[in-house]
Amino acid sequence: MSWDFMGFSQQVERSTTESDVVIGVLDSRIWPESGSFSDEGFSPTPTKWKGSCQSSSNNLQQIGMVHTASKAAGNLLGMTSLFGFGLGTARGGVPSSRIVVYKLHSPNKYFEDAIAIGTFHAMNNGILTSNSSGNDGPDPLAFRNFSPWSLSVAASTIDRKFHTKVQLGNSEIHEGVSINTISLRDTCIKNSLDESLVRGKIVLCNIINNGSGVLSAGAVATFLDLGEGSCVSLLVNTTRSTEVKDLLAPYVVSLSPWGPNPITADIPKNKGGYRFVPYNILSGTSISCPHVRGGAAYIKSFHSTWSPAAFSALMTTLLISLIYINFLFSQGYKTTQLRLVTSDSTSCSQSEKEAVWDLNYPSFALSISPSKSISCAFHRTVTNVGLPWLIYNATVTAPPGLSIKVERSTLDFESVGQKLSFRVTAEGTIKIPMGSASLIWDDGVHQVRSPFVIFVFVVNSIMLKQ
Questions:
Q1: Does residue 187 register a pLDDT over 90?
Q2: Contact predicate 212/190, CB 8 Å
């Protein structure tokens, strides 16, 4: 249903080579028996697949052993819901593609991070990698998977939300965001409650928490005291949740961590109880990430020769590994650290320092200290993948105190595949912790938007020694 909200209906045109697209999923687990992963009607495994299976449950769709996998490439299953909520068809973006799942554990940082190193080699071999950025927002510098050569995905909303009303003993009714399927699963701190006192009860808590502690003690629900707890009596009545339309969607949710990149500040990067259900209603970056992955796989099925950088959600033009090597060199990394990533004989003597502002991202970001004014130039190159003879004009929006100008504000494309470059300058000051602007290229039909973010605080970059 989320695919429908994104405008990606079941009736979209499908490529005859969709079943040759392989989606790799790095996650903690998968449920092979789910109908989402049935291989009924699938052709034999593509000959390009050179991997092997390590699970007897694998089939023609799972060619190498999760909800993240089904969002990207799950089969179409009608009449699915969570106890009647969200009734509809569960499906992935590219249901005919293949899935390979690798089990992994939590990563750390650039040169200690197996994911960052692995995705560097994936990028170098034409494989797009999209990562969940984590759910530790809205704190800045809190996101995970922040290597500049991969795509970090935040979480957003769709046009549907669920509300539950709680009636207090004094007849007051309070409404909040919740999914109540009768057997409430919200709770305080684990192992802190007397089970004999809370079993079967709704527990009042005076701290914000995920509710697992109260539930494990046998309670049926928790009520958070956020300043109005004195009105709560011994009698609390609950009602089943209602489904309503969210007219403000889509927007980025608060659990999405803020940027910038915790290592390179000038790069913008942006559960309930223990029950088992075949389909669930979840929110978070692990849900949004497979939507990006599925969308990329769909495009890949039509454009098999495109590089990871050619997908506009990641980069605007092809970036070879040398650019990233120069980028790491400019960040202070030495030869020994570079070789941990490249696995070759690369040396800093062969590299040129590359300004992080000139990484050919579709977005723009700048981190400054409160005492500094803004003065910066960004260089970008874009490629026409639409029709020949297109003219795009630039429109800029900026907060007060900040001037953003585009040098070459009109891009006149004469052919498909043509590349044109432009320069963006930013000057001025802002008095808020984070300023937001945008650059939009418009040809009268299509709009290509690039966000521009300025972070105002001191960030200590990590400088690695040889």
A1: no
A2: yes
